[in-house]
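User: Here's a chain of 100 residues. Predict its fold as tokens.
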Amino acid sequence: MAKTTSNLNCCIATSNNKYWRKTCIDNINLAIKLHNIKRIVVLEHSNCKAYDTTYNNIRNNEKEYHISNITKCIKMLKRIYPNIIISGFYLDNIQDEKIV
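Assistant: Prediction complete.
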């Protein structure tokens, strides 16, 4: 059974804060070293208060913002970790939808 690290915040792919991105990547690297992970699961969820403060008036397009950030995050992570399986999910109040 492959060990998994999950709940990676996709702002590492979209944030201008290089320290936040480095912290997230350092945590993934530590998980690889300590647990030999084989999979990264990127999760985002609806009604996210962080999105409310980051983006203005996105309620009507929230899902599109999440999907865009998940996609960017996965592309970035695949460049850094080509031998790790990376997938993303958007979780909403009605259903869970696999993105990639």
